[in-house]
Amino acid sequence: MTAPIAIRPATKADASEIALLVNIATHGGIGMGWAYDARAEGTYDPIEVGRLDMLDERDELNWRNATIAESDCEVVGMLLGYPEPDVMGPFPDDLEDFLVPIVELEWLSAGHWFISMLAVHAPWRGHGVGGLLLELAETKRAEAGSTGLALITEDVNVRARELYEREGFKVSASRPMRNYPNGPARGSDWLLMMKDQQHG
Description:
GO terms for molecular function: acyltransferase activity, transferring groups other than amino-acyl groups. It contains 6 helices and 7 strands; from the N terminus they run βαααββαβαβαββ. Helix 1 (15-25) packs across helix 3 and helix 2 crosses helix 3. It has a single domain, classed as Aminopeptidase (3-Layer(aba) Sandwich). It is an alpha+beta fold. The mean pLDDT is 89. It is globular. It has helices at 15-25, 29-35, 46-55, 100-106, 129-144, 158-166; strands spanning 5-9, 66-71, 74-83, 113-120, 148-154, 170-176, 189-196.
């Protein structure tokens, strides 16, 4: 792992890799949802459904908002995020139950650049990839003119929380978790963590 890490914008060709990293970011939770999606019929892997989701540009969670970290042509991690408007729109009324607390917290991040997904492949964790991607998020925040950074993590994800806290993030709100469909609980609360501009 001595090759330098390079950062590049994602392309449509990265859709499957992005879906895999989104599933890693959610500890397999979103993949469970994809597995039970009606579109999964006739597929061999939930990532096939995830790939379709990453190609769908009707919401913010898509390939255009992703940045890939690579080393020697190997994808090692990903940042997926976007600037939130200063005033959030109406709260969605068609959410799956497990998403409600997550979206409630995202709705509190108006005016921030929102880190929707940050994931690093297991062999590369602890090698600075996450910190590099958080630095990139700060650059994107500045370019967008957002007031700060925001992200959501689980209360039990201690390693990630320690990284975020080292980078200046603080817990600003929480919501009780609701289980992923057909998935086990991974903690008690979702945490909204924010880093205001003056810290960066």
